[in-house]
Records
---
Amino acid sequence: MVGRLDIRRIGVSIAAIMAVAAMAFGFALTSGQIASAQGTQNFSIGSLVATTSQTDLREQPAASGAVVVAMPVNAQAIVLGGQFNDGWYWLNYNGTQGYAQGKSFVPVDANYQPVQEATSTPTSAPKPAATDTPSATGTPASSGTQVAIPSPTTDITTPSTPGDYSGLWLGEMSTGGNVRVGPGLDQKILKGWWAGRRVLLYESSVDSTGGLWYRVSDPPEAPMWVHSSLVKKIAPVKYEGAKYKGKWINVNITQQIVTAYQDGTPVKVTLASTGIVARTVNPTTGQRDDNRTELGVWKIYYKLPKQDMKGGSKAGGDYYDLKDVPFPQYFHISGEGLHGTYWHDDFGHPRSHGCVNLSTPMSEWFYNWDKIGTVVWVHN
């Protein structure tokens, strides 16, 4: 997790920050690099994996993430989500959750035996992957188990054309399942999402077999689709109309949705992760740090292509030290701003120290679209 850049903690003055704004930065991390995981195995949600060497389980899917626990050789874990960034997975190891890179693991069965890949040639149409057919418990069905596939939520009416934001719905994964690059079981699996992961239903499409699919990403993000049986509706996306003139940004804390407006027309809608109240007590003050994103009407006053961010407390358990955070745009004097996020994929839920976390492609879009002085309205 990360959020506001705590200027006081890292000893940087506002004047110094404003001076840095004039410097040119080059951002090397691309969405293609984030999406690719060269030399990394693909693990499905709910599968068992075991370490091939001593491996650190970290609190973020990045090498800079704090170590939660060290996993010895042959340690077994359950895959909860992924893959993220450069081949990172969200794992459960003996009740402890964290992130590790897939290259350090192999798939195993309940007896720690390596899982053999099938070599026979199918004689009929391929069957749906286990994680496209949810079980009653929300975990992938085991081999040979017959499960009932929930019917699609037919009362969700989603746009049928790209770029139409007039009827978007906020949804949630009702069970863990595959995220595919297109609408159909024949499409490549991009990654897996867990039960409870929030989604925006941008577009619906029916595949060649009559199956209903939802597009859950929007350009410039890579195409991502999930089967309708894996999704339950939460609420229609709330729009605000022409509250301000020209370009302005709406941050809805309740829905965890950020919308770019041109007068009263939404031109980009995306999930976000805003600030939370820290779960741990600050050992210095004896109180819980309030990391909620500040409500109010602000304006972007400072932006740059990337920046290192650190803050929190090691003793308090919320320390972070992240390199090259992409496209930060500050709107509050405390250091709160919009920025890209490569260390988690849990958009739709509060996770930050006060900032508004966006996917890296979306943060770049906002960075190129808005300007210094653009209004940012943060509200419940």
---
Amino acid sequence: MRRSIMTSSIGMIFLASFIAGCGGSSTSTDTTIASGGDVTVPVSTGTEIAVKAADTSATTQTLVAAPVSAPVGDVTFTLTNAGNKTHEMIILKTEDAIDKLVIGADNKVSEAASVGEISETPAGKVVTKTFTLAAGNYILVCNIEKHYAQGMRTAFVVK
């Protein structure tokens, strides 16, 4: 009986320490939440934006953000790859129309206007990353070969 109480007490101390360590921080982190049991809890700051990447066919793909705007400052994007292929999210600050970016010979758009990215994310994975964004118009794109041309793009505004 004494051993059971001691084990329970140690477990409670560990749980209390874990909970106390998770609160109150304003530090942003890059976090990957993997399927299969590996879970890292992000310390997020700023406006949270859910981004879903999906490939609906061999030639049609989507990138959808919700909401599609945020106030100036820290913006935390959570990219969920709901597709069957690897995807990424590049944040381009541009005044160009969403469907008017020039596609190069490599079947990608220029990343010269990039202010950040969530790099290649395997199918079924979720990645969270925080960026500090200035006011302006942005386009979120998957810039893996042919993905932008196949529809993996969405407009995003920071006010």
---
Amino acid sequence: MLIACCDGLTGFPEAIQATWANTTVQTCVVHLSRSSMRFVAYGDRKKSPPACASSTPPPTIEAAVSAREDFAAGELGRKYPAAVKTWENAWERFIPFLAFPPALRKVIYTTNATESLNYQLRKIIKNCGHFPNDQAAVKLLWRSATSKINAPGNAARAGPLRRNQQKTISSKAQPPPAGSRPWES
């Protein structure tokens, strides 16, 4: 594992580092910002969140340090020292993503995409109870995913099908053959 983005659970970064020593562990910036803002009164939250937590984070570590210090020295930093302390405590896990190019930062900035995928998978599986084996769970998830892709409303967005594609789409989608799925290699 090259990069892991964690949402602030205690001990999770340490467990990742113990298992994969060379992994870059990044704290989810969205979760960090939310946890620091919980110490700030609601009326003050929109005034001036830490610049390092804005939608466009600083381009360098030096700029991030400057933004953190400006926030700490500013009105809200003096009024809410616990918010400043939250950033200071998580600083070493916050700055790793600044070493990456902007395109990659968008991917490792937050855990929201992963959480969204897990939510969708849990929604599909929750009514089924248990599965006799892993293949049964994979088959259910595969059918659900392909039924949404092949739904009538989605066909128009995908564009017209070529003649050879029309023959291969069926109402009962089957998972791809074993070995063609990346998680089985």
---
Amino acid sequence: MISDLLISTALLGTARMSAMPPAPDPCLEETWKKLDAENPAAAILSALALTRTLRIAGAETLAVSEEAVVCPSENSAYLPAIGVDLAMRLLSGEFPEILPEWMRLATAADLILPPRVLPELLSMASKNQLLRAAASRLAGERGLWIARRYPEFLWLLEGSEVGEDAWETGQPSERIAWLRQTRADHPSAAADAIASHWAGEDAAMREGIMR
């Protein structure tokens, strides 16, 4: 990754650096050109700050040769501002005893959280499995988009609708989602899929299948 290369350069020194690496995303190309090439140390630090900001903002840092996949539009409305403010307080640790109930009520209203709240939501639910079902709904389409890019959030995919080929080609959580879908309508097909792959599954996948 570009950020790894930048960090290595910063640690080893810029004396041997002949040129800056390419911008990690097309949206940074114009800003990248304005980095002070005559001051390599400052340029590297600025580049690291830019890539870090890009990641926090929810954009995947891609190699120039790869194509970015745009997040699909949301199907649900966002919580109103007062609800978002309350969510930020609860997710920061205030009144932890009412957080599960608040999340249940928010999902019952078919509302989702805006992107700026997702880092706190996903971090909290990653630590507490009891919050994951509600968090998956509150994260909306952007949550699924993030989960397909960052392995630590693959649990978001477990309750999502997946294609028929997910068992053979999907991420572990997408395979679990396929099993849950298939068990509901075609339990024998799900059982056959498990039997044919069980010997080759790792411990984590076997645990997911048994849940």
